[in-house]
Amino acid sequence: MKSAWEVFDKPLEHFFERLLSEQWDGMEYCCSGRQESLSQIEMHQRASTLPYIAQISSQGRTPQEHKQSLRNAYQDALQIHPLFITSQTGKDFFSFEENAEIFKEALTLENEFGIPILHETHRGRALYSIPSTLFYLKIYPQLRLTGDFTHFFCTHESDLQDQDESLQIILDRCDHLHARIGYSAGPQVPDPRLKSYLPWVTRSFDLWKQVFQQAEKRGMTTFTITPEFGPFPYRCGLETPWELNVWMRDQLYNAFPMYK
């Protein structure tokens, strides 16, 4: 799937044109805060005929505001008819109980409207670390995840092999992936094509392979993955994020030809 993150300030129709010309399988983007109205976004999306994953995030100063913003963003996303919704949920400085209430609201929305919400493992959010993620998965076994392990790499300042047993539980809950190469000092290496970052590329692909294998065991027949190299301040090299995302897509196809 192609993210619109690095071209968020460009008209959506230009994004669609480029995406179609490069033969991506679908797209992932946030419809909030765009220059187009929801009805215009829905029109462009319908015309593209490609599947869509909605990105949302809970916002606000208080847990209650996060709950309300999650509901509002979810209902907006429904108008664009997504496959599912992926959410950056809660905050790392809210108490466990406060974040748990936000996750409870997300599950209520799923039951009410029928479109799944996957929760992204993301620094600054409720799922900022492996222990915090395990806590919420234990409270709500039905929670499903978008795995972005770059955030764990820099949160724990490691490649996570020292937490492998706990990590396995998380890998089995992932129904979608964000494919970026992070490392112990940050969520995005300057250029993943450089030899110096090969260990982090290898580790990332190994984790993604494990997620695919777990998904197959659960009977999933389709799995989505979005290359997600982002713009400044994530970008700190000479490369363009779009260029790296195309590179990542091609690397995924080469590494996992059986999934193409």
Describe the overall structure.
With 260 residues, the protein is of the alpha/beta class. It has one domain (2-259): TIM Barrel (Alpha-Beta Barrel), CATH 3.20.20.150. The chain is 45% helix and 13% strand. The chain contains nine helices and eight strands. The protein has helices at residues 12-21, 38-48, 63-78, 96-113, 130-139, 149-156, 164-171, 198-217, 241-255, and strands at residues 2-3, 27-29, 52-57, 85-88, 117-120, 144-147, 174-179, 224-227. The chain has an eight-stranded parallel sheet with strand order 1-2-3-4-5-6-7-8. The longest helix is centred in the C-terminal third of the chain and has 20 residues, at 198-217. The model has no long low-confidence stretch (mean pLDDT 95).
Name the descriptors.
8 strands, eight-stranded parallel sheet, alpha/beta, single chain, 260 residues, globular
Shape: globular
What proportion of the residues is helical, as a percent range? 40-55%
Task: Return the CATH class.
Answer: Alpha Beta
> How many alpha or pi helices?
9
Largest sheet: 8 strands, parallel
Secondary-structure element sequence? Answer: EHEHEHEHEHEHHEHEH
- Beta-strand percentage? 5-15%
Distance between the termini: 12 Å
| CATH homologous superfamily placement | Divalent-metal-dependent TIM barrel enzymes
Q: Please count the beta strands (DSSP E, at least 2 residues each).
A: 8
Examine the coordinates and then state which fold CATH places here, giving the name of the CATH topology: TIM Barrel
Mean pLDDT: 95
Provide the fold topology.
Elements: E1 2-3, H1 12-21, E2 27-29, H2 38-48, E3 52-57, H3 63-78, E4 85-88, H4 96-113, E5 117-120, H5 130-139, E6 144-147, H6 149-156, H7 164-171, E7 174-179, H8 198-217, E8 224-227, H9 241-255
Parallel strand pairs: 1-2, 2-3, 3-4, 4-5, 5-6, 6-7, 7-8
